[in-house]
Amino acid sequence: MKATIKIISFAISIFLVPPGLHAQVIFEENFDGNELNMKHWSYEEGDGCPNLCGWGNNERQIYNREYLEVKNGKLIITAVKEGDKYFSGKINSKDKVEFQYGVIEVRAKVATGQGIWPAFWMLGHDIAEVGWPASGEIDIMEYVGREPNTVYTTLHYPAHHGENASSKKTKIENIEEGYHTFKTIWTADNIEFFVDGESVYNFVPEEYDEEHYPFRKPFYFLINMAVGGNFGGPEVDDSIFPQKYYVDYIKVTSLE
Question: What residues does the GH16 domain cover (predicted)?
Answer without folding.
Answer: 11-256
